[in-house]
Amino acid sequence: MKMAHVADYKKKVVDGFVKLIKEYPIVGAIDVEGMPTAQLQKMRETLRENDVVLLMSKRRIMKIALEKAKEEKKGIEELEKNLQGMPALIFSKVDSFKLYKLLKQSKSEAPAKPGQIAPKDIVVNAGKTNFLPGPIISELSGVGIKSGVEDGKVAIKEDCVVCKEGETINAQLAGLLTRLNIKPMEIGLNLVASFEKGVIFKRDVLDIDEEKFLSDITKAASESFNLSVEAGYITKENVDVIINNVFYSCKALAEESKFMADVVVEDMLAQAEQGAKSLQAEAKVEVTQAKEEPKAEEKPSAVEKPKEEKPPEEVETPAEKKEEELLEKEKEIIEEEKKLEEPKDEEKPAVEKEVEEAVKEEEEKKLEKERIDTEKEIEKVEKEKEPTTDEKIAKMVQSQQKHASGEDKKESAEALIEEVESKVDKEKKEIEEVENIVDQLKKGKSIKPQEDDKVPSAAELAAKKQKESQD
Asked: Could you report the per-residue pLDDT of 10-69, keeping only the tens digit for each?
């Protein structure tokens, strides 16, 4: 049996296809049916600029080339099933999705012609047309379109699929679509399938709506964030939101249960005040205010003297009494240290001096320890003097009452600021003096009062502390 003779040029074409298949990682099956020659040449130039090669030949030659290349690229022979219409092979180094997007952007719409294959479902949408009632109604009915007359014009009642994907468009439908200005066809290269790394990607997989894809990702991220917040799963992205939600939930719970806390004190006082006002309005209780007495006629020579307001007497608290006792105790320790440091004129034997020095050293250590313990107790008392929540509330209520009666208007802001600043400076100086004394005592140095300095008594220290607490 004789072998069929194959022309040399056909062998060269097959070898050319095999070489391109081995050289390029992406091989695609293209359908160029219905594409004008001029546009095809222009499209080839555009593809060449993007390092894409388009090669056309007979279907049989391309099948032979795919069969020869399957030894090096397994699965490439499956691309043969996607050689449709007027087939061609396209070779690219960009991935399949970018290649499909490039070819899709180069397409343009065109009217349908008889005998063409529908690339997708052809849909005629409902709505009014520009046609007057007449034979057009029967033509629309002939292709399955329901129509009627509205405001003297033919109107399509509902959407209708007149031709499904893959079906042949007949002459009647092609003419009707042209009259309705529907252009279902696309002029351009149709990428039917693509081979990449052993996988065949069909057109329905490659055709991705990027806007919808990004919208789905954004929606998924938003829903995941909301789910993590609702579930209480803490991440660095939602930790601030979760903390805010917990804070406002706790605040609402405190307000609902009437639990007194620093955050809700002002709100609860405002609610109580509003409730009192509403109750006063419902009960029709009249609040009488003190009437001002008519002023006597002022004489030009008389000068009114400002009334001196006596500061309210404050009751000494147990904490302040304890602090006075500690200050008196510290005063006694200082006096004992001074007595120990006073030199004695009488000369004593060396042994007796050594004993006295040892006793003196032990007494100094004991006094130093007592001083440290006293300072700690003073700090503890100072902490206990900090106002509690009830005292803060009472103070706020008292300030509200003063504000309502107008007493707080008598003091100016500048005078208060100056007074506070002077007190702060005075406290700083006293703190520095005490720190210096403590440092010297820790270093073992003796502190001798200067001639001008006068050691205050316990009563003076207590009076001074009481005055500062009143301020």
From this structure: 888 888 888 888 888 999 988 887 777 777 888 888 888 888 888 888 889 888 888 888
Strands (E), 129-262: 147-150, 153-156, 160-163, 185-187, 190-196, 199-202
Residue 470 lies in a domain: no
For residues 31 and 59, give the distance between their C-alpha atoms in angstroms, rounded to a whole number: 12
- What number of residues does the chain have? 471
392: Cα within 13 Å, side-chain hemisphere? 12
The 10s digit of each residue's pLDDT in 98-147 is 888 888 887 777 888 888 888 788 888 888 888 888 888 888 888 888 88
At 153, which CATH number?
3.90.105.20
- The tokens describing 219, both together, are 């929606």
Pick from 163, 147, 154: which is nearest to 114 by CA?
Answer: 163
* CATH code: domain of residue 65: 3.30.70.1730
pTM: 0.41
CA dihedral 463, 468, 469, 471 (to 10 degrees): 130
The C-alpha atoms of residue 194 and residue 99 are separated, in whole angstroms, by 9
